[in-house]
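quick one
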Amino acid sequence: RTLKTEGTQLPIQYKFPENFWWGSATSATQIEGAANVGGKGKNIWDYWYEKEPNRFFENVGPETTSDFYHRYKEDIRLMKETGHNTFRFSISWSRLIPGGRGEINQEAVQFYNNVIDELIQNGIEPFVNLFHFDMPLELQYEGGWEKREVTDLYENYAKEAFRLFGDRVKKWFTFNEPVVPVEGGYLYDFHYPNVVDFKRAAQVAYHTMIAHAKAVRSFRQSNTGGKIGIILNLTPSYPRSRHPADLKASHIADLFFNRSFLDPAVLGEYPRDLIEILSEHGILPVTQPGDSELLQAGKIDLLGVNYYQPRRVKAKEHLPNPYGPFMPDWFFDSYEMPGRKMNPYRGWEIYEKGIYDIMMNLKKNYGNIESFISENGMGVQNEERFIRDGEVQDDYRIEFVREHLKWLHKAIADGCNAKGYHLWTFMDNWSWTNAYKNRYGLFRVDLGTLKRTPKKSARWMKEVARNNGF
Ligand code: BGP
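structure w/ 6-O-phosphono-beta-D-galactopyranose:
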């Protein structure tokens, strides 16, 4: 059962279904660089960094990142060598349509055409996401997702993407982790525009799903074929105990952080309980006639699941200040389970069985929707300390992936409809306000020369993909 070096045949203990999707995920702002090149407009990250560079780890911003814009050919060759048959990237809205509305930027069309064609020529299917936290700056000035009009502009952008690339792209995603800009930008102050206001957060969340549904509708009208979905970070919510107060706390955390997007995306409607809580506190978002039908029509074909860590909660110990601002955490406290396993190099809990629980929940309560793991990975600080003979000896990452894959394998054996596994991520990249603090790649990126060097995990992933298991 031990790992042998490249080339040796491994005993196959965990065999995955035929045509399983092996690959990795990325996003435009995190890998492209060329932030001011090729006619790209500014998005909120370019702007926020200019304004408050000290909010970013070591003051590093998104101008260069991994320079995929100029190095995509080399990267795609490395993906092929690593056994990828699929790869997710996102289109930058502000690159394709600078300013968010109006003219298409032909240099961007050329770039994304090149990437798509290069992937296909190398036997790698492109999975394309339309929005990964990167609102065009002009539209944020106009109110961003708080404004209903932005959902029409997003629909138009999506339509253009289907028209331009839909002949070759057959897996589309409307949003990546839509709850994150809501939490970060409107509740907990870790994304621009740094608002802390639940009512506005609820409106942003709601409009994101309206935008999603409009894009799904347009995709189906476009008749380009293929599937459309959304990518959600599902953090299973585990109660401290079976005590009713703990169970209730975990139920509410699940409503706010998972089901607020999962239910409308897969079932086409919001959970009753969530609507009740919001209406009780007078913070329901503004809706329009016809929205229910729109959301119903926006049900997805395919769900991407990002899974990093669980959420552990317990009943509130102290009642919240009734005059303070409404926050989801009025209903639960987080809980540090004794003995939980931690990633010592990033500070997140590692709970591999979470993947299985998510998949079984999808099977039981969400019609066994077709899904795949669209992100899972292990971030490590100061990873250079593990370099030996020029290679990062990331056995911890190999173990992390292997243990998660075992649970995914079991979920498939138990009937869940999972079609693939994408690692976060292909090469070390720039990660929002954390910049390069946590390294996640199969390839190490030297921040001076931008040279890519395979880590030990890259060799391992290659064997897993080649054997379709391990
Ligand atoms: C996910 C995001 C990714 C990436 C990852 C790692 O939630 O979809 O974009 O940022 O988290 O995050 P971090 O670098 O903060 O550890």
